[in-house]
Amino acid sequence: MSETGKKILISGGSRCNVLPSEVDLARDYFTSARPGAMKQAFATWSLDGAQRWLENLGLVMEIEESTGKYFPESGSAREVRDVILHGCLDRGVKVRYESSVVGLRRQCPGHTGGEDAVQC
Questions:
Q1: pTM score, two decimals?
Q2: Is the Cβ–Cβ distance between 60 and 19 less than 8 Å?
Q3: Across the strands, what pairs with 69?
Q4: Domain CATH number, residue 31
Q5: Which residues belong to any copy of the RsdA/BaiN/AoA(So)-like Rossmann fold-like domain (predicted)?
Q6: CA 27 to each of CA 35, 38, 66, 115: distance values in angstroms, whole numbers, following the listed order
Q7: Residue 110 included in any domain
Q8: N or C, which terminus of the chain has less Cβ within 10 Å?
């Protein structure tokens, strides 16, 4: 049976550690294959931006001081999955099951998606 967000549901022992409270790219996200890869990703999607996005979707989070990670206030990974899924569906995202992504291509600048943004 196909289900969206299976990885989210098992994340953090089913509590889902949503975000770290701080990011040190060199310490936390170094890869010898592409040392600058995470720097590029975080240049367009910051930790603060991710937190605001999740809060705007309605996810209430709290920081666990002992780990420095944000968890959903409810303690439920299912809530995290549901909030993200419904936020995406409300914005017109189409979920496809039993599909493989075979290609991605950049659209014109400022393009926010479209039927051919992901090729399955």
A1: 0.72
A2: no
A3: 20, 64
A4: 3.50.50.60
A5: 2-107
A6: 11, 11, 18, 38
A7: no
A8: N
23 lies in some domain: yes
**pLDDT tens digits along 6-40:** 989 988 778 888 998 887 766 766 667 776 666 67
Rounded (to 5) percent helix, strand, coil in the chain: 35, 10, 55
Q: How far is CA 23 from the centre of its chain?
A: 15
Domain count, the chain: 1
Three-state DSSP state, 111: coil
Report d(CA 60, CA 69) in Å as an integer.
13
Residue 25 resides in a domain: yes
Structural domain contains residue 11 = yes
Helix or strand or coil: residue 20?
strand
Joined together, the tokens standing for residue 69 give 């990670």
